[in-house]
Design brief:
By secondary structure, the chain is α+β, with helices and mostly antiparallel strands. It has helices at 5-23, 30-35, 49-65, 72-85, 96-107, 134-137, 159-166, 222-233, 254-262, 308-318, 412-415, 417-436; strands spanning 92-94, 109-112, 115-120, 123-129, 145-149, 152-153, 173-179, 187-192, 194-197, 201-207, 210-215, 241-245, 269-275, 282-285, 297-301, 323-326, 334-340, 346-355, 371-372. The chain folds into three domains: 5-36 and 48-70, no CATH class; 109-197, Pdz3 Domain (Roll), CATH 2.30.42.10; 201-372, 2-enoyl-CoA Hydratase, Chain A, domain 1 (Alpha-Beta Complex), CATH 3.90.226.10. It comes from Halomonas ventosae.
Length: 438
Amino acid sequence: MPSCPAALFTVTRRLVPALLPLALLGLTSLPIAAQDQRQSPGLEDDLPVAEIQAFAEIFERIKRGYVEEVEDAELLRNAMRGMLSELDPHSAYLDSEAFESLRESTQGEFGGVGIEVGMEDGQLMVITPIDDTPASAAGLQARDKILRIDDTPTDRLSLQEAVNLMRGDPGTQIRLTILRQGDSAPLEVTLTRKIIRTQSVKSELLEAGYGYLRVSQFQTRTGEQVSSAIRHLKRDGPLKGLVLDLRNNPGGVLQSAVDVADAFLDSGLIVYTEGRLRDSEMRFSAGRETAAADVPLVVLINGGSASAAEIVAGALQDQRRGVVMGTESFGKGSVQQIMPLGNGEGLKLTTALYFTPNGRSIQAQGIEPDVKVIRGRLQVAEGNGLDVRESDLQGHLSAPDTQRSRGQTSERLRDDYQLGEALNLLKALDVLSQRRGD
């Protein structure tokens, strides 16, 4: 390309109409900001003409000299992707396919393997596998690094490109090469795609009087489903305690997280957000009506608990409404706003950070559990056959009119050490409450 100023001016002049929307894409809330009396610094500055000219020169050099012909629209879309991906791991340009994919995930139905992924230092990483999906059945874990998708290395893929590769027709297979923390060599996992219909809330009784509530992600109707599940658990009598399981929950809709926390709180702040623009600053508080205001509560979290799950855990912890148990959460404390672009595409932009009621930022820090319990498995120790109790002695006296009813115990407790410890804590709290005469 000619390097004289006149030629460069001609190229820049020709491209500026296309580049101006691109240069302003990160300022799509500018009309709102203009009404804000506390205008953010830098919004009133002139556009950086030198950088726009450099962009135009690069654009033209690619057009003229790249080994293969590239469409203008593809170059501009790639520029938009790059501009957003350099901001933070959660801001992204959404083409029509990605925009539809996001809509499907919040509605609770999509095709693929059932895995929530993100980027960390340019590496594709598992945030969490979704319950009852090929990914969870294969044993994928939070913070597993995905090195290859079939034969495609992931280090050159955008997040959306990786998601597109993992989705496909039901019944087709996909190979993922995984590197797990602590392992020296990668492992290969073969998954069979299927239609993923996620049920975000599940519930059951662990034992008589002790309920279990599993929230796998926060969709548009999760708050309603939690309240309904609590009412269902109460059908057979009052609850002595409840376990709220938020492990491997990647988050989702902010309002649903507020609704779930509100199910256990009858007053007080749940979460607030702070950003550069006035409309990104919000406060959410609990209402008086609640599904389980007084039920003793244990909240389970782990490294796969992120975003909206951390909002709920942080609110219940700060309000001293429940005991948070497990391991440190993921640490995603940012809010993304979805902005339609009018052509079936969209922009996902980080606009604020959220804070717990006590003013804690979760971003890159996570929620520390009140009681740390590492993942494990319950195993009954083998006896030597020499244990003898009074009831084993021949001719022992029977206690009068006593029958011990064990009731039914959930199968979940057999292989879930953290859940077993949560139930034990609830039982201990119940014993103390009875002794105090509460």
